[in-house]
Amino acid sequence: MPRKPKTIPGPSRLSKILANLKKGPHPQLSAVTGLKLTLAFRNDHFGARHFVKEDLPRIRYANPDLNIKVTKLRKTPEERWDPEMQVELRDGTIRTVNMQGKWSSAIFEELMEMGGGDAWQKWKEDRIVAGLPITAPTPLIHPGKTGAAAVLP
């Protein structure tokens, strides 16, 4: 018979993932039918890559019928091209978002402005009235430093 642990176990890995998928704001994109992202495979386009890792799973969870295509291309240091996201709206128009030099939270906010609808506008109003940021920015671990050194442990 196995021993009983003396401490209460913390939340499971699955419950942490589910909590992340359900955290606010709820990314319901009612006016969007498809997303197409093009970005570098590595060593560049940091905000876009972070958006794909952190925010895109939440968007997929909230919008299971949304057509999402992510293209990660190899990029040499000599090449100069910007990451972009093409947003296809319900009315058939396609808007292009340049993601170069933007934080993932800024990309998320720009996407929600295009297709978030009334729920997104209500979320923004509530956050502004409460004096809180619209989306939670990445906290700085080392406030005296800049760039990746400020965010990485």
TrEMBL record:
Keywords: Mitochondrion, Ribonucleoprotein, Ribosomal protein. Its main location: mitochondrion. GO terms for molecular function: structural constituent of ribosome. It comes from the Eukaryota. Residues 48-102 form the Ribosomal protein/NADH dehydrogenase domain. Pfam families: L51_S25_CI-B8 (PF05047). GO terms for cellular component: mitochondrion; ribonucleoprotein complex; ribosome. Coiled coil: none annotated. It is found in: Mitochondrion. SUPFAM superfamilies: Thioredoxin-like. The keyword RNA-binding does not apply. The keyword Ribonucleoprotein applies. PANTHER family: MITOCHONDRIAL RIBOSOMAL PROTEIN S25, SMALL RIBOSOMAL SUBUNIT PROTEIN MS25. This is Ribosomal protein/NADH dehydrogenase domain-containing protein. It comes from Laetiporus sulphureus 93-53.
